[in-house]
């Protein structure tokens, strides 16, 4: 059966605007055509094929097949989406979409341009293990500015997690797994229909893994924590309920909680080899053990969604979210910067969205209007340590008086505290009109959103241990912006379709937590993207070729400058500097070669250029005494500035093949992912070499034992054990990718 035939069965006509997306099925056994998926990229349930937005969509089966266990794994599989663990924490991730993101993702006074949403609730800070406890139905990655419908600082795009709703029938799923580096995993979910109108779901997950960089040396400090780097232990649970109050009114509620005890990434002074069996000291290049306590992240959230169908053509929806996050993040960079940090930060956020969705003029016009409110309060205390510039090596976190074999312990440089508050309000309207007489071949979409953001922050010093680097200060500012979206989609034929889109997005201004003068603020950053897309299908829906060409223009570009170690390692500046232009091409090809074999190819090309990047007069890190050789204030540094994590080329290639068996199916999956050289920082550049990884999975699926289905899967990541640098910390510290990992999972569904 072709995709067209499947669609005709449900009485809908497939329009063919480009969706630059790829759906990888968990098993390709006996498929007659490429599968279809429903997305909510326009805040309506719509076929992926009918949605004129560039989307990468992954079903639950696809995520399992690709071995996606966390958000970092997801970014590896999506060429347009790049990421890295923030240097101080493996539970915080910095996201970059089509070349733009936030290099300072653990900062309360800067927003992320890649919005993260769980069931339409905005997640302001990308910290924690929330993905591990979500019982996901699918993930949607919307590429390009989502300024009208997902407007809370989603100027580069958004990542939307959609969870499974409680099922109407009793059932459950249990997965147990293990692997090298001491990996142990356990997850379970249970659907409980309580009445005909009320049903619930309970999900839980837990895992632990040893650190793969062993923190050991001849100077182990007795009585002080010396955990290995990259160790992690986490657990969480989620409770969801659906209540059909009446035939036209439904309430969905969920609560999730997760905690993770982890140690940070290891930054080594050497850039030509990967440390694994021991940590190292920069002077003398010998084994050395460091003080390293565990970090902890806890987060929880409530979500209440009310859906009221006033009529066949009018629906009112309310989405209420409340989230809390607390994190202690400790990092010891003694092998690189002679430096260490201890961060304690927390946030609480409330959001409320009202939507009015309707159809008019005999369904020629579909529209959505809404109001949005978001408030976040946060606090952070940061203490910094150094071991000083001594002729030897010291442990920056060692307690004063403790012997390290050479010298005494590290020096406490004092603490500073940040208090922040952000309040955002918005109103939006978007509609799609399909003129009569065009047989639904032409769609005209117009959307607009007005947003106001008010932000204030105060920096104080620890009264008992004042910082020697930072002074007290405060800042307050407000920002506003009109965003718009104009999209035309047109079906040239039943199998060849196009769309053209012009959309804007913006990121609110703020301040840099680690700037010398905390009264300084930066203005908002704006993005306008022009996009042309093509979508085509051949061979009765067995071959799909998607392509998109785009240009993104950024005004008042936010530039992050990190201080050079060792003297200025504490400081970070953020300011508006010039313009950026990114030109890109995205290509997605899916081929169902046989009923049991599928090949996929995803490719992204980015070409960027900066202009008018001028060092502001208030810069400290790029300043210096007037007229001195180090004073770059007022200088155009466009030629020596970089867009971080924007590889010129990134791609993924996958092969899925299934061998049907009399008692199930043996499914093989192998994929190769590659990205070109990238830069760690915009101001310093700091090139990171290209990286290519091979991953695979073999699964025995569909084995039925009575009413129970059993699945056994053997998986491996980085099968060729590539060892490459993935982050450069101010030229002094180098983080490497994880060595080859593998494991075995057993899943039982009933």
From TrEMBL:
Keyword check for Transport: yes
Sequence ranges assigned to domain TonB-dependent receptor plug in this UniProt record: 48-157
Matches recorded under InterPro entries: Beta-barrel_TonB, Beta-barrel_TonB_sf, Plug_dom, TonB-dep_rcpt-like
Subcellular localization(s) per the UniProt record: Cell outer membrane
Keyword RNA-binding: no
Gene3D superfamilies, per the entry: TonB-dependent receptor, beta-barrel domain (2.40.170.20)
Domain TonB-dependent receptor-like beta-barrel intervals: 243-719
SUPFAM superfamilies referenced in this protein's UniProt entry, alphabetically: Porins
Protein keywords: Cell outer membrane, Ion transport, Iron, Iron transport, Membrane, Receptor, Signal, TonB box, Transmembrane, Transmembrane beta strand, Transport
Membrane topology: Multi-pass membrane protein
Leader sequence residues: 1-32
Family: Belongs to the TonB-dependent receptor family.
Full protein name: TonB-dependent receptor
